[in-house]
Every structure is written in C-alpha cells, then in structure tokens.
C-alpha cells in the first residue's frame, strides 16, 4: 500500500538517482504557511494578545471562537483538524516547551531565504538576502523532480505571494506557478475555475503583492482534481500579512482557515484512488516571529526568535508519533532530502541537510 506525500519542500538537481524502493510514498504535497508561530500551533491563542475578557486590543471579541484557559483546548479550537487527524495519525515537531526544537538555518529570517532553504535543503545568505523578484540561482527540489521522466509535467506550484515564480525560477524550471494574482489559464477551464478567476478580479485583498488565501487554495484544489499531479507545493500567506498589520484577530482567523484547507486537501487525498495511501503531506513555515506586543508583528535578524519554526508530517511511511515531546532539533532544510528519500530517490545536492529519519519507514 502506497501513500501520497504532502510535503512543504523543494528539491535540487535534475539528475536524481533511483534508490532502493522501500517506501510507499508515490506523491508529495508540500504545504507552507507564512509566518505562523509555533506558539499558536501548540498553545492556541496567545494570552498576551487576548485579555481575560477575551477582547482583542484593536476590535472584536475572540473569546467564544478562540479562548479557553487551557492551552490544549485553545489549540483544538484554533486548529481542530491538526489536533485530531494530524495529531492522531501524523507527527508534529517544534513544541519548545518540551525542548523539541525546529530552527531555520538561514540568518535572514524572512520569506525568500526561508523558502529557498526549505526547497533546496541549503541556506544561502550570500545570494538570497532580500525578498526582491529575482530568479533563484539555486535549483529547488521541485526543479530536480521536474527534470526526471517520471515527474516531468507532474509538478505544480501555487502561492499567495507574487514572488513564488522567482523563488521556483519558473522560467528555468518549466514548472507552472500560479501565484500572486495569476488566474487559471487554458482552453478547458472548469466552471469553478472561471468563477474563481472572476472573483479574484472583483475581491481585492488589502495587500499589493499577496492575494487572499482562498484563491490560492481553490486554484490548487481545482488543478489537482483535473491534472492529478504527483508533486504539489502550496504556499499560503495570510497569517504573516495580518501579523505585519498588527491584526491578531485576522491572524487567528486565517490560521483556522488554513487548518480547514489542510483538512480539505487530506480528505481529497484519502478519498481519491490515485492518492489514497500513496501520499505523504509535510507542512511547515518559512520563519517564526517576535513573542511580545512590540515584536510579534515582525521577524528578521533583529528578532532572534524568528528562527523558531515547526514541521508536521503525515503519510504511509511515517509512524503515528503525534506531538513529539522529547528533546531534539530539526531543520526545515531537512525536508528536501527527506522528500526525495520518501520517493525512493537520492537527493542530488550533497550539500543539502540530512533526512528526518522519523518520517521515513
């Protein structure tokens, strides 16, 4: 029995070597969510931002939707799918309350460097040190796979941020990227895709270079249903942008929405013969952020705890460890080589980080 791999990852080199086939994973979904702190993932709504009446500083009540004195209940209220299905059948790393750490390796601690690290397995502070729209000189895990006969034309990328075509280097890799305010294109658009195209034109979010996550999610889901790709990278963005705007209420709502999108993706995988029991899903974030009222809106070198991240994995080759409470240290840079090994391949870049052994059989 094989399972599809849902991973937040990028792969390097286009000459991967076939390794001994001992895994059940045939497909990978790599999912990222921008700037979601481990504190909300593992503890729910932060008491520093929600007072004892449940009122947020700026406006509105979060009490009924997100607040309980017990952090275990709070996290279930915020991310019910994560703390049911993923916690029961998968693995969750990064709860620093137990000394279980996940750290970014790059020292920039913002988005482009973070995504480069995840997708290549190697931090590159020398070349990737801004969020500018410059094509990535490094080869991602996605491009390595696109170069293999078994995966060519079967790798898709969707992102809310309009820089992803450059991070993935769409021009060089030949991987189709739907990001920013891109629409679904082609001669055989579904009725749903036509509707999403129209709504994206009519409903503008508050940010110039980032669209609202519902568009990214539904473009991705429609394309998955039509094309049945083997490797999918979906990058959601709202939590980071709402945090930058100091909107803790919308930050929480976007996290709960993201959790619902994970449920929808996993339910589709497990109900679709091409994916069921053949897919691994890996979820992670590109950076952490500050921990108090003066710094939680930001991240970067000047906010050291921006290094703190997390990783979630679920799939046919991964044991159901749930929330990992033992001391340890992992890096999102380890995802690239891990994905290749799950697919029975040897990662072509010898400089990439090592594998996450617990996710492998």
TrEMBL record:
Residues 1-19 form the signal peptide. Residues 219-290 form the Metalloenzyme domain. Keywords: Signal. The keyword Signal applies. This is Phosphoglyceromutase. It comes from Cyclobacterium jeungdonense. The lineage of its organism: Bacteria, Pseudomonadati, Bacteroidota, Cytophagia, Cytophagales.
């Amino acid at each position: 029995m094989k399972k599809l791999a849902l991973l937040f990852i990028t792969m390097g080199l286009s000459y991967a070597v076939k390794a001994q086939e001992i895994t059940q994973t045939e497909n990978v979904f790599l999912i990222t969510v921008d700037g979601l702190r481990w504190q909300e993932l593992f503890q729910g709504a932060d008491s520093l931002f929600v007072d004892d009446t449940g009122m947020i500083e700026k406006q509105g009540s979060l009490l009924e939707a997100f607040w309980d004195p017990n952090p275990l209940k709070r996290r279930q209220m915020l991310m019910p799918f994560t703390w049911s299905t993923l916690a029961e059948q998968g693995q969750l790393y990064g709860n620093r309350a137990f000394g279980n750490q996940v750290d970014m390796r790059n020292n920039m601690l913002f988005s482009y460097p973070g995504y480069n690290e995840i997708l290549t397995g190697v931090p590159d502070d020398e070349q990737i040190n801004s969020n500018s729209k410059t094509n990535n000189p490094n080869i991602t895990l996605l491009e390595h796979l696109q170069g293999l006969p078994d995966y060519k034309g079967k790798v898709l990328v969707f992102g809310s941020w309009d820089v992803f075509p450059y991070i993935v280097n769409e021009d060089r890799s030949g991987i189709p990227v739907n990001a920013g305010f891109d629409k679904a294109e082609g001669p055989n658009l579904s009725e749903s895709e036509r509707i999403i195209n129209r709504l994206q034109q009519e409903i503008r979010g508050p940010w110039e270079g980032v669209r609202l996550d519902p568009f990214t999610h539904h473009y991705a889901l429609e394309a998955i249903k039509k094309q049945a790709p083997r490797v999918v990278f979906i990058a959601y963005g709202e939590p980071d942008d709402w945090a930058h705007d100091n909107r803790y209420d919308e930050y929480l709502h976007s996290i709960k929405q993201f959790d619902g999108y994970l449920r929808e993706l996993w339910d589709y995988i497990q109900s679709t013969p091409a994916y069921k029991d053949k897919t691994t899903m890996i979820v992670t974030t590109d950076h952490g952020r500050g921990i108090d009222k003066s710094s939680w809106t930001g991240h970067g070198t000047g906010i050291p705890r921006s290094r703190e991240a997390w990783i979630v994995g679920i799939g046919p080759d991964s044991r159901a460890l749930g929330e990992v409470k033992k001391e340890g240290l992992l890096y999102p840079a380890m995802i690239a080589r891990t994905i290749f090994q799950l697919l029975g391949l040897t990662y072509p870049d010898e400089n990439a980080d090592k594998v996450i052994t617990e996710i492998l059989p």
